[in-house]
Write a structure and sequence with these properties.
The protein has 132 residues and is mainly α. It has helices at 13-34, 42-69, 75-90, 94-97, 101-131. It has one domain (12-131): Four Helix Bundle (Hemerythrin (Met), subunit A). It comes from Clostridium folliculivorans.
Length: 132
């Protein structure tokens, strides 16, 4: 369902590859939502959230190093957006997921997809022009 299409490609292979993984993690969340066979998705949701947070930290660090290397002028505001994303993921109440699993998956998915799409299309394109 969620995949990195042409409109989200930056033209920087390494960054596109990392963005693709973020879309894959969003897709894993979506697949959990569709999974009717499994009534208790708690452990799977925890695993996806943990993986998303860890991978996002890795990816953001890579992006920030790239921005530093090209002396991107808006690195500070870009980094603030990265910090906001991690903070929102950190604020997820894992214990509450136990009781309203599908609703939490929907909420998490809505945030992740909206943020990733908006961030790539409006922020990442700004530093990519410095890289090329």
């Amino acid at each position: 369902m969620f995949e990195l299409t042409k409109e989200y490609e930056t033209g920087v292979y390494k960054i596109d590859k990392e963005h693709r993984r973020l879309f894959e993690l969003a897709d894993e969340c979506y697949n959990l939502l569709k999974e009717d066979i499994c009534e208790d998705k708690y452990e799977k949701v925890k695993k996806v959230i943990s993986e998303l947070k860890n991978y996002a930290k890795f990816h953001f660090n890579e992006e920030e190093k790239l921005m530093e290397s090209v002396k991107h002028k808006q690195i500070f505001t870009h980094k603030l957006q990265h910090d906001y994303f991690i903070e929102k993921i950190d604020d997820i109440d894992i214990d509450a997921i136990e009781y309203k699993q599908d609703q939490y998956i929907i909420d998490i998915l809505t945030f992740i997809v909206a943020w990733i799409r908006q961030h790539i299309l409006s922020k990442d394109v700004q530093y990519v022009s410095d890289v090329r």
